[in-house]
Design goal:
Elements (H helix, E strand, L loop, with lengths): L6 H26 L7 H21 L20 H10 L5 E4 L10 E4 H20 L3 H36 L10
Antiparallel strand pairs: 1-2
Helix pairs in contact: 1-2, 1-3, 1-4, 1-5, 2-5, 3-4, 4-5
InterPro entries: DUF5063, DUF5063_sf
Protein name: DUF5063 domain-containing protein
Organism: Actinomadura keratinilytica
Length: 182
Amino acid sequence: MSDTNSPQDWNALAERVARHVDNYLGGLEAVARGEAGPHTVPMLLLEVSQVILAGAQLGASQDVILPDNWEPEVGEDPDLDEVRQGLAERLLAIDEYVEVFDPYKDTEPTSYRLSDDLVDVASDLVHGLRHYQQGRPLEALWWWQYSYFNHWGNHAGAALRALHAVVANARLNVAEEAPAVR
């Protein structure tokens, strides 16, 4: 991102982030419906990784400042409980995990649920997407950036580490195969 963020720069960033958000939301809903089958965890790892890329782009950008210093109303956000429940059912064996939320401030691990984290991220993202869809890309960017630093970035990072651990353990803890008999 350039030092002088023009409206065109902001619009291009908003468009990129909106695509990532839309993909994340669609992927999360598909996994919650069971469409990923045995690939649920790797698919979630991919979805979270891609939305974290959008967060990194927001984090690397200068602060988005709204000209009037207020956020226009977007209406009531959608209820994502059905997605949360679907994810909880698909992730039953691995839904709960432990995380040190802020490695610089926290000293005690805290218990979290992947299904909650994934939907908390979705909730923050859908709110910004609604601004974007209503023709307010600057408000969308402001919300996504603010909530990335304040909320969804931490939850996405924690979920990414938990999902990575599941995939890595499954891949690395494979029993040694017996040598082939000749």
